[in-house]
Amino acid sequence: MVKTPQVAIVIPNWNGRKYLEHCLRSVFAQQFRDFSVILVDNGSTDGSVDLARTCFPQVHIIENHENRGFAAANNQAILASASEFVATLNNDTEVAPGWLGVLVQAIEADSQVGMCASKMLLAYERDVIEAAGIAVDRAGVAWNRDAGTVNGPGATAPIPVFGPSAGAALYRRAMLDDVGLFDEDFFAYLEDVDLAWRAQWAGWRCAYVPQAVVYHVHSATGQEGSHFKNYHLGRNKIWLLCKDYPLLLWYVLLVLAYDLMSVGYAIAAGRGPDAVQGRIQALGGVPRMFAKRRQIVRRISSRAMIDRLHPVENPLTVLRRYAHVRTANGKTKNAQ
User: Fold this and answer.
1) What's the CATH superfamily of 7-216?
2) Count of CB atoms within 10 A of residue 316's CB?
3) Torsion angle defined by CA atoms of residues 200, 131, 148 and 25, in that order, rounded to the nearest 10 degrees
4) Strand, coil or helix: what is 145?
């Protein structure tokens, strides 16, 4: 009988041939070897599948005839595998040789940890952190921890955080069986925050593993500032709050105030129509999200959930969290 690998590495792909070979070569250079790789292609037309099939015959390929989205692609692979752990990985990443091993070590060390976050560094500015896990504040704003800060020696032991970026994460299958998979209605963006939030409601924990290093080309597929990304972020934020946010009156008013400021900033930055359109389109899905809300496994109270959220910060501080994104986007374009 063939032994099931301990980890299934899932890589969604949509016209990512430019990055895919580099990504896969780094995956197969891992020091930890007990894994399989599933590539889910969302209807690429750039020869991605041919490249993977020719250069990496050991990769299991699932081919879709259309772009089903990031969430659905991950779910296809999760359901097609039986490994104890599932690692999700963007196709525009390069993982350090010890990446997977330290993630597995961290999740095996504590049965309450259902997910692990990697240290994601910018591919074209490798001393700058893109994400050290995900944080969510009491105004419902989600962001990448430590984004834009300089990578230094710092802590090496795992640190509790709210959730991982699914661009480079490790999930425990038992947790996924408990709380469910990615919400395919989200299509792309914030689906990882939704999954982390549902896991937190169910009492699971997330560990950020600083030694699990990944280099990422920021928004290589979605393109920073594009209509696609701004629309989906605007739509999915409303759905995320309807589905997961604890309904305490004072905090709900705070959420509304910060979201109005967010829309105002988008308008000032020239992204207003996309952000507003996404929020308007979200309204049709609100009843569906509230129906899903009633299905969430809840083992902690709303007050306990508020305690797991980051304190609200000054709006100017919130805006500064994204300054590195503009720099990263410029460097990506120059590199191309």
Assistant:
1) Spore Coat Polysaccharide Biosynthesis Protein SpsA; Chain A (3.90.550.10)
2) 7
3) 180
4) coil
